[in-house]
């Protein structure tokens, strides 16, 4: 280390509970709610992310000589590729057809959460040189742990761009992805946002919102002490109904939502749609420092355009009223562009143990990157916003 101390020792933890909540969150900071102790512990304690569900905690932690936590990272040993949103099913299939064993693998991520945020969590009150050293130490520790465990690979999903570049410096392959986010350009209200769209797109959104309004639904934004077990019961029914209809995975157990409300209720924004006082749909959002993150949604009654209203337009209304800069409405969905959500780059990094397999993956990523960049350019050209004079 720069001051002559012993080399950094990175410890591997079997549970988030091996670290005090306040100490973990001091490394996370205020702008990264999904890496917060409350969110990760709710996943673990509910069984949503556990050994039984294929997410075995192997979190990293570095403490100073006095035992104070200086840095940490969420890390899991996985036996499958569900709940990640950066797809490697083709890689797994190719490796196993060639006689390899793809699972288990290491995954540095927030389970079931395709949201960009820091993964190498370091206290920002430390000297900059020490912060850099700890960041490098944890990045290298992930690779070293992968080698010692004999896993096929390590995957870091949805890190920040600066972390993505740092992982590249440590020899990981760097991969691009894309999502669709809405930006608040200082709008006074929803009509101010619509005024910046082309006439055709503005009319289309108004038509969609009018269709929902014609049903007489009421929308409520619930947060903190407003949240009750009855709300979570209703939302969980919606969540299950949606995943069942789409043959999806019910990743999140019912207890997760109660624990989330209990431990992070001030960050929750639960949009509930009610018909004559009865909940008929809900959209779960998490509020960060300047961003509203859309996570899950569901309904038990079919209303045309309700998904767009509950997940996209209500989120925009909330962001404008509360002065938030961004709305991130989840993974995938080019249909979001016509509703004002434009493409933004996301990142992932991948360490592949087998040299031959690594070479094949590197070629794949290079080809994929060119395709994504072309796709993003094409989508940006189809922006619904009026062209500047």
Question: What can you see in these coordinates?
Answer:
With 389 residues, this protein is α+β, with helices and mostly antiparallel strands. It has 2 domains: 11-178 and 344-380, Gcn5-related N-acetyltransferase (GNAT) (Aminopeptidase, 3-Layer(aba) Sandwich); 185-324, 3-Layer(aba) Sandwich (Aminopeptidase), CATH 3.40.630.30. The chain is 38% helix and 22% strand. The protein has 11 helices and 15 strands. The strands form 2 sheets. An 11-stranded mixed sheet has the order 2-5-6-8-15-9-14-13-12-11-10, with helices on both faces. Strand 12 and strand 13 form a beta hairpin. Helix 2 runs antiparallel to helix 9. The termini are far apart.
Q: Percent of residues in helical segments?
A: 25-40%
Strand order of the largest sheet: 2-5-6-8-15-9-14-13-12-11-10
The CATH superfamily of the largest domain is known as Gcn5-related N-acetyltransferase (GNAT)
**Integer count of domains:** 2
The helix/strand order is EHHEEEEHEEHEHEHHEHHEEEHEEH
Could you name the ranges where pLDDT drops below 50 across 5 or more consecutive residues?
none
Write the layout of secondary structure elements.
Layout: E1 11-13, H1 21-28, H2 37-45, E2 55-57, E3 59-63, E4 69-73, E5 76-78, H3 89-97, E6 105-108, E7 121-122, H4 128-149, E8 153-157, H5 161-169, E9 173-183, H6 190-194, H7 199-213, E10 218-222, H8 229-245, H9 254-264, E11 268-275, E12 278-287, E13 291-299, H10 306-321, E14 326-328, E15 342-352, H11 355-381
Parallel strand pairs: 6-8, 13-14
Antiparallel strand pairs: 1-3, 2-5, 3-4, 4-7, 5-6, 8-15, 9-14, 9-15, 10-11, 11-12, 12-13
